[in-house]
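Page 42, continued from yesterday. The earlier attempt failed because a stray header line got pasted into the input along with the sequence. Redoing it now with the clean sequence only.
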Amino acid sequence: QQVPLLPEWGKTRTFAMPNGATCALPPPPDYSEDKDSVFYKQAVEVYEAVNNLTPDQRAVARFWSDDPMLSPTPPGHWISIAMAVLDHENADIKRRTDVLARLGVGVADAFIGCWDQKFKYDLVRPITYIKRLIDPKWEALLITPPFPEYPSGHSTQSGAAAVVLTSLFGENYAFEDHTHEADGLIPRKFSSFWSAAEEAGISRLYGGIHYRAAIEEGLEQGRCIGAYAVKLRTRM
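This time it went through. Structure tokens are written below.
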């Protein structure tokens, strides 16, 4: 894939929020090549993080990578989590339908909202910036996807998913995520849905494909988008 992926997706009709621009974000840090700038420092953070990954950080990056055609994908990962929780609770069909409908709406709208902002700001990825200005031999841990950097899609959709699942199962709902166990990845334990969302977000910095601002603002965008799915009336 060598061309921008789905540049018009932000204009897709939404399910719960009014439109793709509803949960708009502030601009990312101003682009700069000044070594004292916020932008340069965030690039250095990515550069140094990838160069000094701990075994657990590397595992986090791999666990949340969720590459298309090689995994259930990012939204599929959250559906996997929801299905496991529903199985654990022995949920009936009405409960399952409600949870999966809200979660599906939340993550679908999250990608629309995220793509609206991605192609609004069209920000350069770390690998391009770092290779040109910091270290031409540097390589990210994960493959950089073919669309703009800001905000992080993993962060936006994970934030939305966490908002929806927290509303349905409660704060501090602990669970173990076995999504990639069949692929040989060790399951990970979380104290809440939001702690999982935050790990999914930071995994993209460990992978070398997002700056911190894209992660933090993406999670906030997800909070906004997920709230619309929570407000849906799905049961009389």
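Notes: The helical segments are 38-51, 55-63, 73-88, 93-121, 126-133, 153-169, 193-206, 212-230.
Reminder to self: strip header lines before submitting.
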